[in-house]
């Protein structure tokens, strides 16, 4: 995933990885949007500089994730 910073938020590419790591490390929930599907909240963990989710089986419902698929991930902040 290649995040694209929004210029109206004052983010720059240099600081974006640290911001993502900070937000993902503090939250157990992310919103994931797979193209053609509505956003879905997924429980996750931050592991080895990546957001990891478990879906299928008895776990949370599979939102249509496949290996290598591009998705939009929304992380929340209290700021």
Strand fraction equals 15-25%
The tally of helices reads 1
Q: How many beta-strand runs?
A: 5
Overall SS class? alpha+beta
The biggest beta sheet is recorded as: 3 strands, antiparallel
Helical content band: 10-25%
Low-confidence stretches: 1-8
- Secondary-structure element series: HEEEEE
How are the strands ordered across the major sheet?
2-1-5
What gap, in angstroms, lies between the N and C termini?
24 Å
Q: What Rg is obtained from the alpha carbons, in whole angstroms?
A: 13 Å
Mean pLDDT: 81
Shape, principal axes of CA atoms: globular
Write the layout of secondary structure elements.
Elements: H1 16-26, E1 29-33, E2 40-43, E3 45-47, E4 50-52, E5 72-74
Antiparallel strand pairs: 1-2, 1-5, 3-4
Concise overview:
The chain is an alpha+beta fold. Helix content is 14%, strand content 23%. It has a 3-stranded antiparallel sheet, with no helix packed on it. A two-stranded antiparallel ribbon has the order 3-4.
Description of the structure:
The protein is an alpha+beta fold and 79 residues long. Helices cover 14% and strands 23% of the residues. It contains 1 helix and 5 strands. The strands form 2 sheets. A 3-stranded antiparallel β-sheet has the order 2-1-5, with no helix packed on it. The chain has a two-stranded antiparallel ribbon with strand order 3-4. A hairpin with a 6-residue loop joins strand 1 and strand 2. The N terminus is likely disordered.
């Amino acid at each position: 995933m290649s995040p694209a910073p929004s210029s109206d938020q004052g983010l720059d590419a240099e600081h974006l990885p640290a911001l993502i790591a900070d937000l993902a490390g503090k939250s157990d929930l992310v919103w994931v949007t797979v193209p053609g599907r509505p956003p879905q909240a997924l429980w996750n963990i931050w592991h080895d500089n990546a957001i990891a989710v478990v879906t299928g089986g008895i776990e949370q419902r599979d939102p249509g994730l496949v290996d290598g698929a591009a998705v939009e991930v929304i992380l929340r902040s209290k700021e």
